[in-house]
Amino acid sequence: MESVKRKIKTFKRGLLLPMRKSATEGKAVETAPVPKQVVIPVNQHFGAPNQALVTVGDYVKRGQKIADAAKPGSMTVPVHASAAGVVKKIEMHLQSNNTLGLCVFVESDPEKAESDTDFMPPLDPQTASKEDCLARVREAGVVGMGGAGFPSYVKLSPPTEKLGKIDTIIADGAECEPYLTTDEATMTEKPHRVVQGLAISMRITGVKRAIIGMEDNKKSLIPIMEREIRLAGLEDAITVGLCRTRYPQGGEKMLITALTGREVPSGGLPMDAGCIVQNVGSLATIAEAFYLGKPLIDRDLTVSGGACRIPKNIRVPIGTILMDLPEEFMKIDYHSLKKILFGGPMMGVSMATMDVPIQKNTSGVVLMTAAETTSDVEGPCIHCSRCIRNCPCRLSPALMNIALESGDLDSAVMAGLMDCMECGSCAYMCPARIKLVQRFRVGKQLMRRRQK
Predict the structure, then answer these.
(1) CATH code for the structural domain at 130-291
(2) How is 21-38 classified by DSSP, letter by letter?
(3) Bridge partners for 357 per DSSP
(4) What integer pLDDT is reported at residue 221 of this predicted model?
(5) Using CB atoms within 10 A of its CB, is residue 113 exposed (0-12), middle (13-18) or buried (19+)?
(6) What's the CA gap between 419 and 245, in Å, rounded?
(7) pLDDT at site 3
(8) Which residue ranges make up each domain of the chain?
């Protein structure tokens, strides 16, 4: 009981949202049937582009590397076949970020789709060198599974001058987006993998302290995590930090502030606040890459929303298109479906079709009815400052919007454009229903294009 009565931490500003997690909360992850075809995007990470390593007609095994950078280096991770079968075509296809990208189409072999594997040999993280451990994380294709898709091995290999200042690794299990319960399911079903992944990350970086951060709507998981910490003999190194359920508590900047009291500086990264943040799903995947030799080829995600007749947490091969799954497994009411979101309702991307593959960073798909979404016409800014009062990064969304409307990128940057985490708090509170986040995303793209 003592572990539950701990101090609940939080950050300033943010939102109290209706969480709408009850439909999938506490539900076990169901393994979906392997679809007849997987459509695997060649690029599923934040960084330099990959190129396909296979050609049409090749037979690939589950776990076989099918895409990598021409010169593997920083900010790249490979992509692997998620099902055994024949490469039918390699062409452009719509991805979950609403852009076209090169994809490898694999027609799965019903008899060998899961059994014919090409995994890596297990690697002992306690005896392997730091270089070999980092190479394993990269070769497994592990990225941030909370949504950003940032290569995990890059986080674990900061510059030498920064490494000595990093003293804390945070496992992000806050999962503050409404509807989504994937991280909760990971901590419920794979707590040992989360702890193992943390231990591996600590060994690679030399960091002696780690915190598993979660919101207080998941406090029932504290005994589960603490038990695994004790079994691993790491109770002096790893603790559980409880945060108030408040959006966007799962953002790494907010989680760092809540758990350590530190602030990531403008234009900085978590390492500038002495922290490394990894999603709990990424940590579990890192552990599997070492102990099972399994690369990131399966994805746990939540499928929910009013147009999903039986909301559930599911495990699918990466590249699965939900509409290809059997009707008896994925019961979708297409007649009431009005909006398709890849990700949560606050930071997710709205798609025009279901013909989109599940990617490494797809934490959920929310299928909304008309009653769950709005299509309000955007009105003029009334200068109420609600967006400023609720911005967790303490930026000036109204000023950024005015600057972008006038085409003044420099003024938008001065108001905080490049520090915006696109959490959607400003748009949620705007009485004029201004599409602030969409405008900021476009502004960032224009700024990056100008910098290039």
Answers:
(1) 3.40.50.11540
(2) -TTTTTPPEEEPPPPSEE
(3) 321
(4) 96
(5) buried
(6) 23
(7) 43
(8) 130-291, 386-451
